[in-house]
Amino acid sequence: EPRTGPMGYARQVDKERQPFPTRDGHISIAPYIDGNWIKLFEACGHGDILQDPRLADPVLRFKNGSLLNERLRAITPERTTAEWLELCAGISVAAMRVNDLEELIDDPHLKAVDFLRLKQHPTEGGYYEVRPPVSFSVRPDPDIGPAPLLGEHSDALRRELGLE
Questions:
Q1: Which end of the chain is less congested by CB atoms within 10 angstroms, N or C?
Q2: Contacts of 110 (CB under 8 A, 6+ apart)
Q3: What pLDDT, on the 0 to 100 scale, is given for residue 48?
Q4: How far apart are CA 87 and CA 101, in angstroms?
């Protein structure tokens, strides 16, 4: 305070800086430093994008980060996710496949760390529980338990609040 601009970190809330569509899915590409933007556009055959006067030097590229992401979004559908991952790995630009919800169940890493656990709700059937992303020595693997039914804990809550 006093505020010098809108709330939120502009790069994080930029609508253009979201997962990019590919020919067969989505990808997150994070060419954080200026040199990575140059390598990325040149490696994918679109170095001409940097000829735009608004993107002509490092300061302008930083100021116009949303435009860089907009330009990247326009070209990512040209390749598959695997092709983008290979290209980015070859030039040391951070990139990661973006899974849809259905793909998460079979994600090799999530399986390896037992992140999604198939559970049975006593009345509603099967569901996936998301394992807590951190563990503590006192309670390394807590049993979260199923969601309660509507009104299931109402009496206990009223007693705890002194309403009975």
A1: N
A2: 104, 116
A3: 95
A4: 25
